[in-house]
Amino acid sequence: MKTRVLFLCLALIFSGTQVFAQLSKKEKKEWKKKAKEYAKNPANFKTFVEAKQTAETQVSTLGTEVNKLKSSVSDKDA
């Protein structure tokens, strides 16, 4: 039963990502405008990339912390 629920959830997630993958014309124009702004001002782009890298590092650290907390909870339950 758990595997069926898991497969259903995965199917919904993957079908949902395909819907969001396509951009409307308005969204395309907005992203094109942002790309031009970053091309004109590399300092802003550098700041954006550095912020992204910092956020990815933080996500990784928090994921590790979550796993540690889950294992400590499972150890207490056992």
The outline comes out as: flat
What fraction strand?
under 5%
Weakly predicted, low-confidence segments: none
Count of discrete structural domains: 1
* Biggest sheet details: none
Mean of residue pLDDT values: 82
End-to-end CA span: 24 Å
One letter per element, helices H and strands E, the order comes to HHH
- DSSP helix fraction: over 70%
If helices are DSSP runs of H or I spanning 4 or more residues, what is the number of helices?
3
What value does the Rg take, in angstroms? 20 Å
Count of beta strands: 0
Task: Report on this structure.
The protein is mainly alpha-helical and 78 residues long. Helices cover 92% and strands 0% of the residues. It has helices at 2-21, 25-40, 42-77. It is flat and about 60 Å long. The protein starts with a helix and ends with a helix. 0% of the residues are buried. The model has no long low-confidence stretch (mean pLDDT 82).
How would you summarize what this structure contains?
The protein is mainly alpha-helical. About 90% of the residues lie in helices and about 0% in strands.
SSE map:
Blueprint lengths: L1 H20 L3 H16 L1 H36 L1
Task: Name a few traits of the molecule.
78 residues; single chain; 0% strand; 92% helix; mainly alpha
